[in-house]
Amino acid sequence: MTILDALGNAEYRQHITLLATLIKLAYADGKIDPAEWALIRSVALRYGLDDDEGLKYLKKNYEKYSLDTPFELEERIEQLYDLARLVFADGKADEKELKILRTAVIGLGFQPAKADLIFEAAVNRCREGVGREAFIRYIKDLLS
User: Fold this and answer.
1) Is the CATH number 1.10.3680 carried by domain 3-143?
2) Neighbouring residues of 61: CB distance < 8 A, sequence distance ≥ 6
3) What is the pTM of this model?
4) What's the mean pLDDT in 4-18?
5) How far is it, in rounded angstroms, from Cα 84 to Cα 101?
6) I need a surface site. Which of 3, 20, 91, 96 has the fewest CB within 10 A?
7) Is the pLDDT of residue 6 over 90?
8) How far is the CA of 99 from the CAs of 72, 87, 94, in angstroms?
9) How far apart are CA 23 and CA 32, in angstroms?
């Protein structure tokens, strides 16, 4: 499915807004590193969006989209994982990237009272290189 075709579908719109947010995060330090672009592309492919032209469109127009929060907790945690991994994709966590990630924690619908805890946990787990399933379990445990 192309990215532009998917814009009308609510489920895919969440994926597209995640991709746009990943691009925004990648641009926070002024450029998209090849490792960051590879991660963005892999997320797009995971969601069945294998459209290079659509990704180029999002790369130019990412500011038109804001994060569309998924209803399901696990989906929100998965999106947080993708965002946090992008912060470390180029080997360094830039302050601007961390600021965007912190804002995304609230944007993903996590309780403001636990936002700092979730942010720190996401940063630390991704810095340590934990996998998707371990990350999801850890964040769920924090929230219970």
Assistant:
1) yes
2) 20
3) 0.89
4) 73
5) 7
6) 91
7) no
8) 24, 10, 9
9) 8
